[in-house]
């Protein structure tokens, strides 16, 4: 390919206003089957298809949680007492610790990504393994708390307090669960040396998703537990 | 992944594999964007017949309440009594009429079919960014359609709470007697949301990353702009509906109380969430049609579109504003009146970009050399009918006027002028215009024009008098207007509307005939039968797998260079070099 | 030209009708402008042998004009609407008569406070689907709902207000003409939505007194439901 030097000026025109271009044009588009000038070189896309697609999926997810959070806030802002009289407080200390666990899993995921970028296979596997483990612990702790809350009498049917709590936190939990499963799949693939320093889209996508799930949690924690 | 995208996107010679695919992979589980587009088209057209027949049932009941509808005596009780409709069934019928028309006709055709078919072809790509996801998008959509139709056959009947499904009517089975119908409605729409999600991801990624060399954003045809914007709207609006539907389902099935006042829930929350989705949704229905009209008007007026950038920016403005106007559906809902005022202002403002578009279309016609082909007639009808529908929107935007016309047939008239007069005429224009590229054959112009004129007349006969009903106070969603003394004098209008609607239904037959006849026996289409500039016309009709042979097109200019000076033909394809001496230098 | 709006018998109905006609004339003029221009262009610029279309990409001045002019019209419309809207929906005047209207599938329950002017006391009276009010007096309607959302619609009084379960919403009107008017339900509320209706009886002052006397014979006071 002859490079872009020749055709670049054409590209820079707005392309809309022909008057800006010399009005000498081949007589008829049909007859003018001249070889076109060498095309301007195509730039690498700024963000690859896969990551762009993932970003958009996350935008969808964010709006989904936005809808649920909107519902929660409607009730929370209108309430005088929250929790409503007779309803239990949500576990504070345990959830602080659990938040720490989940946030640190975000760090380990970063580590895994950095490792594979350097071609460090065992670093990748370690990172993924620890992340999945932390995620699983988070889920287990949350499950335990849910059991206690249900025993306490807080269920989906306990008015808007129970409805919003279980729906929001449950939806997040399901997302974490999905992310852990995905992590395990990636882990399995990396055990087979599926990823290299140059090509590890799978890890990247999973990392983006994990970051979303982890980043969402402080928002939920702040609004649902602390506010 | 990144590498492959680049390889596909360059103008370098790329060898396309012409492996023979079997029947299943060619026609059913195809990953080719063109076949998926055609599949969406057939899905949408099939559903349009169903949705239209439901509309005719509505009309029959309104003109001749509680009389036998011909041909429907087989429908069992308690839906119909010897061919006459019961009130609950009537509610289910208009609910499904709207649901089908909006979610399974206009969206699949304008967004599903033309989005898929046109995006790669018009930006110069071989396929979508994620072909498998694309196939899944169709199949999830189709399954969602089947599930939606299955709702007619469950005990208790189909969802009967209107397409807007206001809670708590829809949240508690006892209020309507509808049990699984409503659940199925929710589940089907959640699935449809997933289908649209996959589609939008594809559209946005493809448009951002896979444009042909030289195809800058401001050289994109306006229809691609519109589809790009629509994909973003869908991506951000549908999840909100999904979350609302999930909450509704939980209320119905798990005992939560999001929308039930008894448990502290808030009925208006549903409306806020629904319309936060719903208003962007109605622009999803109209924007692609606006894009189609821009293509068609420019091509057949043989003139550049008037104010290309203003056209693109005004669509962006409409999309932005569509997020902050949802409250105009809730002026009388008990929402804070001061809030209503701010929604009124934003609603009025959203008419401004529509004004820009309308006047720029007129500007496009000015000084043109207008060819009255079938697609052009539909495109012109789109403009004038959209204007009527948009102007009736101004009445409703004014909060005091809306007090009177809210929930009357004035709204029904508005709906149909924008969605039929707008979107459906856009669909007819698009089908007539791109049929040669879709199927490699020309549609019959005579039949096309007969269909156009009869549809245009019958359409106005059906929906214009609805303004009169609405101004007379005729409520929407009522089963029998004769139950009201103040509506009885208006009954002849109802009869007139119904007769027109029946005609409107019947005159779709020429279209159906034309479509299928042309599909098999139409005149073979050349590459560029309309002498248009955009890239899809540089591919064979119909384009093969991979769209262009070994080399992809390269873009040298904007899409609307019609009748440029210095060119003997009255068009200048985007692939045509504008600087011939550079070509010579090569 | 537009005699098809039902007769207006409400004090603020005139404002609604005025805005309606104003928008009608504005949009009517816009429609004619657009349509005539379009038809003229279609005729003038139809394809003819040997003539080439004008090559033009637009005209910024024109575009600015046709952006600004509609914008101004719409903003003015918003301001005019806002004033009426606030009068009708935000600032209900003190009531001469108070009633509670409770909607349920598929009836309107009208509760009158009785001579003591208070709801929830023994002398309350509840009638199904009958709303009796005096002409020329401000009537404040407290809207509630027992089950789903309904909509209290008085076409002749230009009043429409949804009733929402779990809330009480205040609406008001002042009838200018005695008569009997239908009260349809305007929001889909189930299979009986169509046909859910009541009657509004707007009585002349003396007739209203008689009605009150018949209902609350023990009361010596004429204005039975005089507000606080
Ligand atoms: C394709 C779909 C579509 C489109 C494009 C629109 C466009 C608009 N709609 Fe519509 N609308 C619906 C579909 C659509 N609508 C549906 C389906 C409902 C009912 C839902 C239900 O309840 O079931 C509805 C309901 C609806 C309501 C609620 C009514 C009620 O329930 O009480 C309102 C209120 O403001 C409204 C307003 C508008 C406005 C202001 C526009 C504007 O965007 C229109 C802008 C266009 C123009 C104004 C014309 C061109 C401009 C000019 C020629 C310039 C000059 C103009 C002036 C100076 C005035 N619409
Ligand atoms: C894209 C959207 C769309 C489209 C295209 C239509 C098309 C039509 N609609 Fe509908 N409609 C809505 C969207 C749409 N509608 C919505 C959103 C509502 C609100 C619902 C609610 O309140 O919840 C509504 C409500 C609605 C009502 C109000 C019901 C009520 O409030 O009680 C009515 C009443 O007349 C009606 C009529 C019609 C008619 C006669 C057509 C006609 O244009 C249909 C003509 C088409 C055909 C008939 C199909 C073609 C048929 C063939 C090709 C086969 C051959 C035909 C024969 C053998 C006869 N519609
Ligand atoms: Cu009550 Cu409709
Ligand atoms: Cu809207």
Commentary on this structure:
The complex is a heterotrimer of chains A (227), B (586) and C (228). Chain A is mainly α and 227 residues long. Chain A has helices at residues 8-12, 49-78, 93-117, 121-152, 159-191, 201-226. In chain A, helix 2 (49-78) packs antiparallel against helix 5, helix 3 runs antiparallel to helix 4 and helix 3 (93-117) runs antiparallel to helix 6. Chain B is mainly α and 586 residues long. Chain B has a single domain, classed as Up-down Bundle (Cytochrome C Oxidase, Chain A), CATH 1.20.210. In chain B, strand 1 (80-81) and strand 2 form a beta hairpin. Chain B starts with a helix and ends with a helix. In chain C, helix 1 (13-44) runs antiparallel to helix 2. Chain C starts with 12 loop residues before the first helix and ends in a 13-residue tail after the last helix. Chain C is built from 3 helices and 10 strands; from the N terminus they run H-H-E-E-E-E-E-E-E-E-E-E-H. By secondary structure, chain C is α+β, with helices and mostly antiparallel strands.
Key terms:
heterotrimer, B: 586 residues, mainly alpha, Cytochrome C Oxidase, Chain A, 18 helices, disordered N terminus, disordered C terminus, C: 228 residues, alpha+beta, Immunoglobulin-like, 2 domains, five-stranded mixed β-sheet, three-stranded mixed β-sheet, 3 helices, 10 strands, binds heme-A, binds dinuclear copper ion, binds copper (II) ion
